[in-house]
Amino acid sequence: MNRLDGETSPYLRQHRDNPVDWRPWGPEAFEEAAERDRPVLLSVGYSSCHWCHVMAHESFEDPDTAAIMNELFVNVKVDREERPDVDAIYMDSVQAMTGRGGWPMTVFLTADGRPFFGGTYYPDRPRGGMASFRQVMAAIDEAWTNRRSDVHAQADQLTSLIDRTSRAAAAAGAETGPADAADARMLEQAGDAILSSFDPEWGGFGGAPKFPAAMTLASALRIHHRSDRPELLRVVRTSLDAMASGGIYDHLGGGFARYSVDHRWLVPHFEKMLYDNALLTRVYLHAWMVTGEPVYRQVVDETIGYVLRDLRHRDGGFYSAEDADSEGVEGKFYVWSESELRAVVRAAAGAGAGEEAADEAVAWWGVTAAGNFEGANILNRPVRGDLIRPPAVEAAREALFECRESRIRPGLDDKVLTEWNALMLSALAEAAAAAGNPEWRAAALANGEFMVANLRRDDGRWLRSWQAGDAGRPPQARHLAYAQDYAALIDALTRLAELSGEARWIDEARDAADGLLELFWDGDAGGVFTTGHDAERLVARPKDLMDNATPSAQSLAACGLLRLAALTGEARYDEHARQIIALFSSAAAQHPTAFGRALEAIDMAAHGLDEIAVVGDRPDLVAEVQTRYLPSAVLAWGEPYDSPLWADRPEGFAYVCRGFACQSPAATAEELSTRLQA
């Protein structure tokens, strides 16, 4: 019998009616594999993964294929977003075997969890040089039955390789002294490397498929701001303009899709992920603060609007993702025929103005009778960067959005992940402060309250994932949080304190930082392991280094600890951050697109942080700080807390400090502006 019905993960529950005898990850599955003397077939994916759905339809829903799986294997399903530790370990093995990775991931394991063969998507029939899934299973069974010693030898080799890979970063970092870890010249070197990999025509980096690289763009903007390098500002503006004009951006409802399958951002992979929209909100916000361009502010407004409208639980948590597919067709929810679009706009505009309004909308979004995606149209803006809609086009957008809302929506992955919520909270808190938006402020505070109430045990241990449940299941949080959860929380909670002026959020940030260092710290080489010392023991203990789709735990921890140290005066936070930076500083300067968030930590460590304290009730001085792009500054205001920033400071002034040594107090916004510019 399939064992997934009681799981909270929407991805696992998608497979609860499969004829495959799926089990969730856990000791029971591996005990059964040992008793039956069968390999474990591990299948890893996530709810919004298009090719995961394809393999499910082709193979896992097929009774004949399922019968083979049930006879030959113990079948285990894992949601990679709930269990990034499991995913990371076995993805390393797949990449070692095949030279590439991706999802769905299919790995065959011994009963003690050692991998011996794996790949990604396998079709139901041989095609394109790929063996079919049934052929792969037959070959695995033949090797298991007749060449068991070869299987164990391969498992030993792969397990050893995984262990070496997980420790390679630690070994490299141990050879570098923290004193040498953060050098301002590294930022200039990184800026040069960013320019060398930049696509000057379409923005971004590399060719198809093309990912937004929000963290690299954020660091390019930071380096420009620090060193006045207009060529790096051009990298940022070209990329942001092209992405927001392309089909990867939802021109009706806001928000970004995961990536573009082409080099010019036209055809997206249509799933929308919370973390992408968090990271892109942040870089568009910073670009608006630097340039004043209203287009970037519009993208921020619309992207946050999308998250608050479509990805928010009523109590304040943010859901994980929306699928690419609806009604079993990729992108169906988002695309339009020319005739359908014209009919909607004509009807909304009314007699007399309808045809002209339809013509204007068709021209604005590049709509044609032939279409640009399988006979339909992905809306995009052919005039790059020209996104401020005239009234007639805005009216058309509203009508088209209302019409689209009546369609069958893509599937929603409604689990609430601590890490991704913290990334969104950081961006939302910054945006609320910069824009002075009370709705965003309320949403940010509600999200912080939600996480504290629902994703933390009574003993203070944070958890990874929360699910609302349904009529038959109560709300439930599960899976011990990982280093990236704790690290993302530190940054988010400090930014919530900077937004609200409430001291409790600094206390929460301290607790998260202390938990990170207690549970995850590598005492031998520095940095943080992915899993805590109280977590399940796997075949290796992973330790991520590079920034991928989301920032690495190392980057998040370094940035968060540096900021928290500047706010509280706790030197140990700064010391641990610099030990982390030693792990990646040299590699980040040479390969900046793999270390986008890491570069921010290097910048803060190399140049130091400005500490700004506004003491007393001076909202004008607080606003002077919050509305500026100050990437290497922290702000204390409102309720005092334990920190040198509050010591013996007369009220009614702003203090700009470095190393807690302060300039003369500023009594007016003009004086504070002068201090900040200096």
Write up what this structure looks like.
With 678 residues, the protein is α+β, with helices and mostly antiparallel strands. It is built from 24 helices and 19 strands. Strands 1-3-2-4-5 form a 5-stranded mixed beta sheet, sandwiched between helices. Strands 17-16-18-19 form a 4-stranded mixed beta sheet, sandwiched between helices. It has a 3-stranded antiparallel beta sheet with strand order 8-9-12. The longest helix is centred in the N-terminal third of the chain and has 27 residues, at 148-174. The radius of gyration is 26 Å and the shape is globular. The model has no long low-confidence stretch (mean pLDDT 94).
Strand order of the largest sheet: 1-3-2-4-5
Class inferred from helices and paired strands: alpha+beta
Number of helices: 24
Helix % is 40-55%
Radius of gyration: 26 Å
Shape: globular
Distance between the termini: 69 Å
Question: How many beta-strand runs?
Answer: 19
% residues in beta strands = 5-15%
Can you give the mean pLDDT?
A: 94
Largest sheet: 5 strands, mixed
Unreliable stretches: none
Describe this protein with a few key phrases:
10% strand; five-stranded mixed beta sheet; 678 residues; four-stranded mixed beta sheet; alpha+beta; 51% helix; 19 strands
